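Customer escalation, tier 2.

The customer says the design service returned an amino acid string that "doesn't look like it belongs to this structure." They asked us to rerun it and document both sides in this ticket. The original structure tokens are below, unchanged.
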């Protein structure tokens, strides 16, 4: 009797449920009913709240608009409990106290019932989490066999969990209704085994959930890293192509500048030819006027000779005049031909000059277009370099994020095992 009264007065040590952290815990849920609601439309976070002492999971539902893939969900676990909650006196590992002291079934039966309520709450939370995971992976059309197998295993455990809880409740009821002390102890041991079995299944389900998240995050990280590497290779190829185009455009620009200098030299030469042609034309006009004045003078002198004595002189003069006329006519014809040749040459030079000016304008326009293309290529090179730097930063962030998530998951597994 003394031992029995001592066990009744002695409180069982409270051991936190699986996944509970060692940090101080604040109360958030004050309603006894389970709730699932959107905390904020801006943060797009779905929070699954369960009653006091249950696991609380926050899932990030941020979606990338216009993209076939979405950011992976990153669950965070929290535990909530009331300071004056009667669950604090319950323990999920009452087997230790049961093995240390002589068994008093009535002292532990109430604690087992409270633990059943706590396991039921965990089952409700686990069921919501499993349905949420099914919705998430169906939405993202995940084809990973490991994730599918683990999710199928969790769903099967959830389906069997309600039957195991019913068996546990039935066993507790059977212990309460059993009269014989030995039978009650035997049934109580069965209850302890059933409870430990349920607890191990629950821990296994949480471990599978953590494994699913680890696998999914690793898969997403590897996919993103491969995509970033492909984009980096593409950008590097574009950068090489742009550099080659810049080199070829520079060679073209140098060739065009050389041609432009040649055309400008030809234009200057044509200007000098034109001035020389004008001087030659003026000189020929002067000579022609001089010859015509000389012919008129000789004709006047010939008309004044009317005497017979001067007939011979006149004949000689006429012969001289005829010869002069012939020479003048020949010179005049030669001058006309020379003028025609010079005129045709001047017309050709003018046409060539006009054509050179037109080509010069076209080359200048082409140079302006090439300069604009060169500026645009420089802009593309700057954008490509920025994209490469941004891709490298994203790869580094993804690596740091993946290592941080793996470290957090390992820490959660360690806390769960403890």
């Amino acid at each position: 009797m003394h031992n029995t009264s001592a066990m009744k007065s002695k409180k069982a040590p409270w051991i936190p449920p699986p996944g509970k952290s060692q940090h101080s815990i604040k109360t958030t849920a004050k309603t006894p009913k389970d709730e699932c609601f959107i905390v904020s439309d801006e943060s797009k976070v779905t929070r699954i709240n369960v009653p006091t002492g249950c696991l609380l999971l926050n899932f990030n539902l941020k979606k990338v608009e216009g993209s076939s893939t979405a950011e992976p969900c990153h669950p965070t676990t929290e535990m909530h409990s009331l300071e004056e909650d009667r669950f604090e006196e319950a323990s999920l590992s009452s087997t230790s106290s049961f093995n240390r002291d002589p068994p008093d079934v009535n002292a532990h039966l109430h604690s087992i019932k409270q633990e059943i309520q706590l396991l039921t709450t965990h089952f409700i939370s686990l069921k919501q989490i499993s349905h949420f995971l099914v919705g998430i992976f169906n939405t993202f059309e995940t084809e990973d066999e490991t994730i599918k197998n683990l999710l199928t295993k969790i769903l099967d455990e959830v389906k069997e969990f309600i039957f195991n809880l019913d068996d546990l409740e039935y066993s507790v009821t059977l212990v309460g209704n059993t009269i014989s002390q030995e039978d009650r102890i035997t049934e109580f041991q069965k209850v302890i085994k059933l409870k430990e079995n349920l607890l191990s299944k629950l821990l296994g389900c949480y471990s599978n959930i953590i494994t699913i998240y680890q696998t999914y995050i690793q898969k997403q990280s590897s996919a993103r890293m491969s995509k970033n590497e492909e984009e980096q290779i593409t950008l590097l190829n574009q950068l090489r192509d742009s550099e080659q185009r810049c080199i070829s455009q520079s060679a073209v620009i140098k060739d065009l500048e050389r041609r432009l200098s040649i055309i400008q030299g030809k234009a200057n030469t044509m200007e000098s030819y034109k001035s020389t042609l004008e001087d030659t034309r003026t000189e020929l006009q002067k000579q022609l006027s001089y010859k015509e004045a000389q012919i008129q003078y000789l004709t006047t002198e010939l008309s004044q000779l009317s005497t017979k004595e001067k007939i011979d002189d006149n004949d000689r003069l006429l012969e001289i005049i005829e010869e002069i006329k012939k020479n003048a006519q020949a010179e005049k014809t030669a001058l006309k031909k020379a003028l025609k040749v010079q005129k045709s040459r001047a017309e050709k030079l003018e046409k060539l000059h006009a054509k050179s000016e037109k080509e010069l304008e076209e080359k200048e326009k082409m140079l302006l277009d090439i300069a604009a293309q060169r500026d645009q290529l420089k802009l593309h090179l700057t954008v490509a370099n920025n994209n490469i730097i941004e891709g490298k930063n994203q790869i580094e962030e993804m690596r740091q994020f993946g290592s941080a998530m793996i470290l957090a998951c390992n820490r959660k597994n360690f806390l769960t095992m403890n």
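Tier 2 assessment: The sequence is consistent with the input. The radius of gyration is 54 Å. Strands lie at 35-40, 45-49, 55-60, 76-79. Sent an explanation to the customer and offered a walkthrough call.
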